[in-house]
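Hello,

Our lab assistant flagged a job as stuck in the queue for most of the afternoon. It eventually completed. Since we weren't sure the result was trustworthy after the delay, we are filing this so someone can double-check. Below is the sequence as submitted and the structure that was eventually returned. Let us know if re-running is recommended.
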Amino acid sequence: QVQLVESGGGLVQAGGTLRLSCAASGFMFRPSAMGWYRQAPGKQRDMVARISSGFNTDYADSVKGRFTISRDNAKNTVYLQMNSLKPEDTAVYYCRWSVYWGRGTQVTVSS
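-- returned structure --
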């Protein structure tokens, strides 16, 4: 079965960095586009970053220049490097493939 397991979240001060990982299994990872989404309390779930099978990337305007999505096809893993974190980045971050979602990892940025 499809599994998406996020890790790497935590509590960090504003200006800090975190690196999220999403370990994928149960499907053909190499030809698959992958995405990171986030959901803050009381808000909808929004796209943060996406990466195609050809390593093309797409970012939400709010994270451009601060976040970087990458993938390691040998490890079936997609990453989200988050730099210069802001309190408004606080949310649960989810990994997505097709219609499948991971359980999420909490990112909290203190001011």
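-- support follow-up --
The delay was a queue issue, not a problem with the job. The result is valid. The mean pLDDT is 98. The CA atoms of residues 40 and 91 lie 4 Å apart.
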